[in-house]
Amino acid sequence: MEEEIFKMLTDAVLSGNVKLAIKASNKVIEENIDAYEAIMKGCAEAMRIAGEKFEKHEIYVPELLISARAMNSAIDILKPHMKTEMQTNSGKIVLGVVEGDIHDIGKNLVKLMLETSGFEVIDLGKDVPVDTFIEKAKEVDADLIGLSALMTTSMQTMEQIVKKAKESNIRAKILIGGAPVSKDFAEKIQADGYAADAVEAVKVAKELIRGER
Amino acid sequence: MEHMTSKERMMKAIDLEEPDRVPVFITALSHPSRVVGTKISKMRENSEIAAKAAVMTSKNYETDCVYIYQDYGLLLGDIKGIEVKIPRDSPPSISNYPLRSIKNIDECEVPEFPKVSDPKNKNLRLLLKTSELTCKLAGIDTFTCFCVAGPFTLAGLLRGVETFCMDLYDNPDKAKELIEASAKFSLETLIAGIESGATMASIADPTASPNLISPAQFQSFAGSYLRFVIQGLHDHFPDKTIPVRLHICGDTTPIHDQMTDTGADLLSLDQAVDLKKAKVFTKNNVCLMGNVDPSRLYLGSPSEIEKASRKCIEDAGSGGGFILASGCEIPPDCPPENLKMLIKAARKYGKY
After folding, report:
1. Alpha helix positions (H), A34-103
2. Residue B315 phi/psi, 5° resolution?
3. How many Cβ atoms sit within 10 Å of the Cβ of residue B83?
4. Which residues are bridge partners to B247 per DSSP?
5. Interface predicted TM-score (ipTM) of this complex, two decimals
6. Which among A8, B12, B140, B343 is placed 20 to 30 Å from B304, CA to CA?
């Protein structure tokens, strides 16, 4: 039953069908299924598939956008029912999609998960200039800078940001994520952490802030 | 020894033949303010200054085309509700697009585009005055280019690109109505531009890029409307040869056939495109122009620009039908030494 509903949610998000996404989400609540699991296994899974298809030019920006819209309509219903730990003061994170990249769906999902885990997220949006990350982190005395990218072309920008952050001696550690990047790449550019998805981002963010990494 | 005028040289390349050398074209809208030592806003507000700046820029860098000043504010500023802000020294920005506040496209009414003939339309009149003065100052032997935004881009501007992308799914017919009205406006404005004295009609449709929409979406929502504009232009001037340039940003490789099918004489390709592949693919059926990276023109060294220009000429210059150009609009503060390298490279490596 659970799997069936998750699949329904995934299909709804992938096809950008808002009505179906709402229907599936209401079913999650009716059946007392864990809302967090539904977001991860239904919505996040759909967006992961969509991201893959986008990279392969099987789908384009309009398809990504209607999927994100369907996902948001599902999350609106599911979020109030989430039972994950709701602590406060986990830390302060400056988050954004790096310059040259306008794809903020992954970043928005990370933001959602971080916020529901008690982080304060300062969202810089998309296509964020290199210096803005550093300046904002300085200004708010952030614990962490989260960098996201969807395009292979914007990977290099991450390298510049890490370099500038080290040069400017800010306290914030740097966590990177997004379709084209990897753990290896994070190590190569000397970022402090890498997360493969929004769930892992929360885990790694906590570890980095506690000084466990 | 160069014996052709810029007009002859450009026309020869557009006719897919070999001129005396590869022609040079720089898409410079805001940079000309630097050439005449003024602010962008001065050029924007004063047609005489804009004309002088455009002509001086072409003279300074010895390009084969004078690029007539324009911006989205001039084009769309007369639409009811729209506000244009003119910062002192950066390109104008538009706010208050009336259609952006409407959530559902079903409720959008196709806006009334400004009519060129109506003297109340101050922005549009200014655009055409600038064009007229620029062409007059450039002289009869000079090739001039009048540019407007393409239908898909205009519709995307009016609705907001992200919203408009979703509109394509929510109500494709309504989206097409908006694109069609935009196409009629592009056409009318281009006709007025040609009547003001410009040699070439140029359409920039950056939002119709494969970086955003699929080739299939291009076909339904952009290509056919571009064809309508280009055909309309030729129909309006049956006795005149008006070359049409089409510029789309990003890696347009997947749609070069569709771009050619629009009837454009000249495809302006951005730095993301492999010119060599484009030349092979288009088989010299359409004139290509491109594609020195504007960010390198800004940040690179003159020797880097020479190398990049040489590569463009080697990739796409053979047999003619090629114009060496910046891949897209150049940043306002490009160093003049870099811009001068285009003509140097064309003379050194682009002789036929």
Report:
1. 35-38, 45-55, 61-78
2. -75, -35
3. 11
4. B204, B268
5. 0.92
6. B12
What is the spatial distance between Cα B329 and Cα B306, in angstroms, rounded to a whole number?
18
Angle at B61 between CA B57 and CA B63, to 5 degrees: 90
Average pLDDT along chain B, 352 residues, taken 10 residues at a time: 90 97 95 94 95 97 97 91 85 83 92 91 96 97 96 93 92 97 97 97 94 94 98 96 94 96 97 94 94 84 97 97 94 91 97 95
CA distance B49 to B1: 33
What does the block give as tokens for B310? 């040489």
Residue A61 with chain B: CB contacts under 8 Å: 165, 211-213
Structural tokens at position B3: 């014996």
Judge: B213–A66 Cβ closer than 8 Å, yes or no.
Answer: no
Nearest CA in chain B to A69: B166
Please report, as a single letter, which amino acid is at residue B231.
Answer: Q
How far, CA to CA in Å, does A39 sit from each of A5, A79, B140, B257?
Answer: 11, 8, 66, 42
CA triple A143-A148-A151, angle to 5 deg: 160
Residues of A in contact with B254 (CB under 8 A): 57
User: What pLDDT, on the 0 to 100 scale, is given for residue A82?
Assistant: 80
Is residue A79 very low, low, confident or very high in pLDDT (cuts 50, 70, 90)? confident
Residue A128 carries which DSSP code?
B
Which residues lie across from B5 on neighbouring strands?
none
In eight-state DSSP terms, residue B110 is P
Residue A89 has pLDDT above 80, yes or no: no
Nearest-Cα residue of chain A relative to residue B168: A62
How many of the other CB atoms lie within 10 Å of CB of B173?
Answer: 7
Q: Is B212 on the interface with A (CB under 8 A)?
A: yes
Instruction: Give the pLDDT of residue A84.
Output: 62
Pull the structure tokens for residue B292: 């020195």
Asked if B214 has any chain A CB less than 8 Å from its own CB, the reply is yes
Helices (H) and strands (E) in chain B, counts: 16, 10
Q: Closest chain A residue to B272 measured between Cα atoms?
A: A153
Length of chain B in terms of residues written: 352
How many angstroms away from the CA of B175 is the closest CA of chain A?
13
Task: Tell me the average pLDDT across A50-58.
Answer: 81
The confidence score (pLDDT) of residue A86 equals 42
Cβ atoms of A149 and A97 within 8 Å: the answer is: yes
